[in-house]
Amino acid sequence: TKDRVEGVFRKSVVYGNRASPLQEKLPNDHTHRWTVYLRPFNEEPLSNFIKKVQFKLHPDYENSTRNVEEEPFEVTETGWGEFTVTMKIYFHDSAERQASCSHYLALRAPEIFKEGDVPVIMKENYDELVFVNPTRRMHELLMNT
Ligand code: SLL
Question: Which of 17, 91, 114, 137 could cysteine-pair with 96, CB 3.0–4.6 Å?
């Protein structure tokens, strides 16, 4: 029996962060609140085929590995510095290899973009999760959305 479906299947996703300055400085010198996320490009739920997203933060943070097992796949924190967050994406079918992406947090808008207060900034990337000859189970999950 063939346990794989021939073909290439794609899911469009967006990952990135938003950030805004804190009204008052915290005792730990944190200046910004930010959220880093993986979300669908379309409205479809990602949890149909994604089991968990593991976010790796800067080792400054307590429990710097954060596992998120339901949508929205995101982590909100406060901090003062920009660094690279890596996201490892686990699928419901463990026969599918994990995917990963990384994102350099943006907390402050470059001077050139500043107009008044710049209360919130966002930085996003578009990407595609590509499944080549997925397992039958994974194929079902992918078509389910
Ligand atoms: C920098 N190389 O110097 C980077 C490091 C680390 C950011 C950024 C505080 C974390 C905490 C925080 O924002 N660290 O207090 O737990 O810009």
Answer: 91
